[in-house]
Amino acid sequence: MWVMWASTAVTVGLLLFIIGFILKRGAHVLSWEFLFTNPRQSGALGGILPTVVSTIWVSAAAVLVAAPLGVSAAIYLAEYTKESRLTRIIRSGTEALAGIPSIIFGLFGFAFFVTTLGLGWSILSGGLTLGLMILPTVIRTSEEALRAVPRYYRDVAQSLGASKWQSIRSVILPAAAPGVMTGVVLGIGRAISETAAVIFTAGVALRMPLSPFDSARTMSVHFYTLTMEGISDDMAYGTASVLVVTILLINIGAYSLMNRLTRRYR
Amino acid sequence: MMMIARTRAWVATARLSDAMIERCLLLAALSAVSTLALITLFILREGLPVVIAEGPWAFLAGVKWAPSRGAYGLLPMIVGTAVVTAGALVVGVPLGLAGAITLAELAPARARTLLKPMIELLAGIPSVVYGFIGMEILVPFIRERGTLGGPGYSALAASIILGIMVLPTIIGISIDALEAVPRSYRDGSRALGATQWQTITGVVLPAARNGIVAAVILGMGRAVGETMAVIMVAGNAVQFPGSILAPVRTLTANIALEMSYASGAHAQALFATGIVLFIISLALNGIAGRVRGSRRKATP
What we know:
The structure holds 2 protein chains of 2 kinds. Chain A is mainly alpha-helical. Chain A is 76% helix and 2% strand. In chain A, a hairpin with a 4-residue loop joins β1 and β2 (45-46). Chain B is mainly α. Chain B has helices at 2-29, 31-54, 56-61, 75-106, 109-124, 127-144, 155-165, 167-179, 183-191, 196-207, 209-225, 228-234, 251-258, 264-298, and strands at 65-66, 71-72. In chain B, strands 1-2 form a two-stranded antiparallel ribbon. In chain B, α8 packs antiparallel against α11 (209-225). Chain B is flat. At the A-B interface, α1, α3, α4, α5 and α6 of A face α1, α2, α4, α5 and α6 of B.
């Protein structure tokens, strides 16, 4: 039995080691200046400002796609239908989409958004691709959140004369909001850490994006380029530290939101 | 009278807009399925021409990949993917199962609330960071170790990194499977005099078997589909690996490495690589869903 505990300790130890290793080597690079100045010499010197801005833009675009679609889909699945052939198709399609490797999303986004729709390598192409990629996460988490809202909320709302949509909009959705937000926040996390799907859709241009049609290099892509082209180890560790800290904060945020939901309906 | 008529009208519009809203929501619900359809369409449209031109067999079983000379054989990459995926399971399954058993069966509630989010965090770490850690620590370690040697960038390095990356998948889904086993199973077993360990191995694990198998299959899907971390540590040489210390190239790496400069038939061949990857992912997902589903029916 101690083997079980030891293995778990190894798993948790790996997590702590990865975070600690990156932060230890990157800490001396981290500063407000690093975040808020432009890179020089392909990123060997200076900061990472354009990649921070690009990451925010691309993730925001992804959320603008995934949140309305995903939450609406979840409302339909949780509130409007009984299990049927149609819901089975919707559910298995969502599951299947969740299992598609991100590089396939990259290929698809390149063929569809970049080439066919003519959006080019841009914030828009990258955001749309990532939005579709995180859609299953948002749908699944939101549906669970909606289902966690007790039955009597619906009964009371409807007995007061609210129509179905009225009761969803003003009673059920607010009650499920923390859980829905968790899904969105986790989706943002995936969008920020993704590389394979954005590198072929948002591109790699290392400059400040000025419009949604500009190419943008996200932090993950920048970090990948810094390491693979051997541009600067220091800057790579620094960028990785920013990434890891961001993901850490996002996960903590998502977790505390979820906690709030479960505490509400325990 | 006026009042009643107005209320009726109000109820009627509410019903009408309810129906419209339902239709809009249904459209949104179909978005994931439509995305899947669009992906299928575009990958096939871009990739099929080269498969037809080369012949599917020559494409899948061809041993030579030399785009500059028009040779598109995928077999080395298929073998590469199989090798690192198998390696990832060798690393990830024992660790993952142990983690799931600890969290679901052994750990006190307080330890669980602390450990579970940490393991979910492991899933949140960007794959480029895993790849980087592999490059900085694992690859030099393998290269400089007397008994190991080789270039370091190898199937072994990729297997270990992927083995860590599949842990959250395996642990998360296995925990769900273990927690779905009814309490009465454990109580019954303990009442018959079995120790906690005998209960876990003799009763709980067999009852959760399907869920655990599904967890392993989904972990496999994760390993097959991972791209950036693998590129950074696997060496990416197009060859059949002579040993686990030799460099390999996976299907995902093949696409990502050449996509930035490919054009014409070469680009089509990369999309065709995507088709193979797409089919493998769908198949693994389908199998996992089926294995999991059959269990749900067995124990209501």
